[in-house]
């Protein structure tokens, strides 16, 4: 049997985990969430969520991966054959996300090139929808494939699968060791100049001035927990796969804390970057910030190009921003790829290279759908349903299964045996009560919201065909894979003692 791959160093592992955590969510989701949810006051629920749910859940995933040494399906299967499906559910969720994440990264790569000559012209909104995407008016009308987006999508797949293909240490670790310092450098250089722009400091005041009445609202707390789970890439079994390559004596809890702190610190830095630009733009255009503050695709591909047009050094700011966005996206995509590739390798008993080629070919073919004129709307629906249900369902079942049906105190002792920071009863309390309660609350409120009203005003056919259907695909895939005979059957049975017997 082949020896299992390992990370080359502690820094390499933390960089990879941070690379997964830091993604588009930090840059285009977090800043607006702070602004919209009480400004500086939002940081209270945010840091509370980080401490009471984010760190404990991260420790749990690191611990599970390291103790049971495997991809998600293998870990759950080795605890109990009946639970293998949960791992496959998470693998399918990651797979679906990668197919469209690649296309968003492709947009960022395209815009990076456009930034050299402000190719978005004087009307970035028009350019984005009409010229760049050739967007159709319905997710049911796809139009034709956009060649530039297709090429960049192929590049995104190539770059990320190349990292996974070449192995944990020489591919994933090495890439992240270049990408993460580069990302921080780009953002710091951007801020260094950006903060000197007139109006930039006003932007920061708008972002951080606290409105303490906001923290009385349940929605604000749910948003804070949602952002923490999404941003830390927990509940996707990503961290679990990454931790499975840790050498025996490695630390768990301190590494988990470092990953979380670096990610959340980066979010704050991104907030400063985005709002310094928005402050400047508001001043230049003489409009209130509320008119221009947005998040997501609109922020990155419409508002930012508009602001960059007004800036003193547009090429400098434009290329920095879109390169940062691309790098943040690529490193998250690598982690999604690894989840799927590791699971395929172990299940089918094939080489890493073979698994990478199979996965990449299928994934790329599906991505093509998102490069058509209907891509943006399709992506919007799939993203909403997979994040609001696919990820949450996987995460909530994972945490309830481990915290309630397994010998979680054994896991705690195992984690403590190699960790610098010892975890106590508070950790168990969090993973048994706080984290699952918040996840369940979010899941139920999302469900009520989406059943009572069609998401985003799309037709029932569209939400059924591209939204709810993603969940059926996950169920079918999980059922299919876990019923099939496989290499995991060879796993020795000692891990089965982890399951509580009633
Ligand atoms: N953590 C990423 C972000 O903040 C999102 C993500 C989650 C990406 C899971 C990949 C996998 O953007």
UniProtKB/TrEMBL annotation:
Cell compartment(s), UniProt: Membrane
Membrane topology: Multi-pass membrane protein
One MF annotation (Gene Ontology) recorded for this entry: symporter activity
PROSITE patterns cross-referenced by the UniProt entry: NA_NEUROTRAN_SYMP_1 (PS00610), NA_NEUROTRAN_SYMP_3 (PS50267)
Annotated TM spans: 12-31, 43-64, 85-109, 149-168, 180-201, 228-246, 258-281, 315-344, 356-379, 385-406, 426-448, 460-481
InterPro entries documented for this protein: Na/ntran_symport, SNS_sf
CDD domains with a match to the protein in the record: SLC6sbd_u1
Keywords: Membrane, Symport, Transmembrane, Transmembrane helix, Transport
Keyword Membrane: yes
GO cellular component, one term: membrane
Cross-referenced PANTHER family: TRANSPORTER (PTHR42948:SF1)
Alphabetical list of NCBIfam families matching this protein: Na_transp
Family membership: Belongs to the sodium:neurotransmitter symporter (SNF) (TC 2.A.22) family.
UniProt protein name: Transporter
Organism phylogeny: Bacteria, Pseudomonadati, Thermodesulfobacteriota, Desulfovibrionia, Desulfovibrionales
